[in-house]
Amino acid sequence: MRKSVLLSCLLLSACTSVSSQRTDLVREAIERHNANAARWYAAGDIDSVASVFATDAWQMPPNNPPLVGREAIRAFWRQAVQWGKWEFTLETQDVTVSGPVAVERGKYILRFTAGPGAPPGMASVEDRGNYLVHWQHEADGQWRVVADAPVSELPLHPPTP
User: Fold this and answer.
1) How does pLDDT run along the chain (161 residues), one tens digit per residue?
2) In what order do the strands lie in the sheet with 67-68?
3) Helix H segments across the chain?
4) Domains of the chain, earliest start first
5) Rounded to an integer, what distance in angstroms lies between the CA atom of residue 32 and that of residue 23?
């Protein structure tokens, strides 16, 4: 009896250890994707940004309708980088993994510097907040974003009359 209890404890411990190692590996992959994406946004390399998203991904920018599908995300950001420089800082705070699905919770800072191509009235802005990202491990071995939902911590300013 004592041997079976000891064996059960060892097996449970081994499973927990493997699970935590897997979570660490997934977190590393996600943090690598985030670092690349931040660099690609800043450089205006939108094809590379789009490659991080699943074909049916949703990107849900604050105060805007969602961008649905990799091609819609690509089209939006191809236009948006013409408006000025986008700089993101992404800080992963937690990753939970279950099989081929991972959920990342983190904090972001966005600095947008309006350029000559910005629409009239569009100003430079800095935003910060939190985000949840649903990641999917795809058949090609890559982790891709299925849903990206940032939530600003800054209050909305009422429209000026």
Assistant:
1) 555 544 444 344 444 433 666 999 999 999 999 999 999 999 999 999 999 999 999 999 888 899 999 999 999 999 999 999 999 999 999 999 999 999 999 999 999 999 999 999 999 999 999 999 999 999 999 999 999 999 999 988 776 66
2) 67-68, 53-59, 143-152, 125-137, 101-114, 84-98
3) 2-43, 46-51, 70-80
4) 19-152 (3.10.450.50)
5) 14
Q: What's the residue count for the chain? A: 161
Could you tell me the two tokens for 80? 């948006």
The residue whose two tokens read 């000026």 is 160
CA distance 147 to 103: 10
Beta-carbon contacts of 137 under 8 Å, excluding residues fewer than 6 positions away, are 26, 99, 100, 101, 102, 143
Strands 143-152 and 53-59, how do they pair?
parallel
CA–CA separation, 161 and 123 (whole Å): 17
* Of 103, 85, 83, residue with least CA distance to 42: 85
Measured distance CA(70)–CA(52) in Å, rounded: 9
| 31 class by beta-carbon count within 10 Å (0-12 exposed, 13-18 middle, 19+ buried) | middle
> How far is residue 64's CA from residue 101's CA, in Å, rounded to a whole number?
26
Token look-up 């058949």 returns: 139
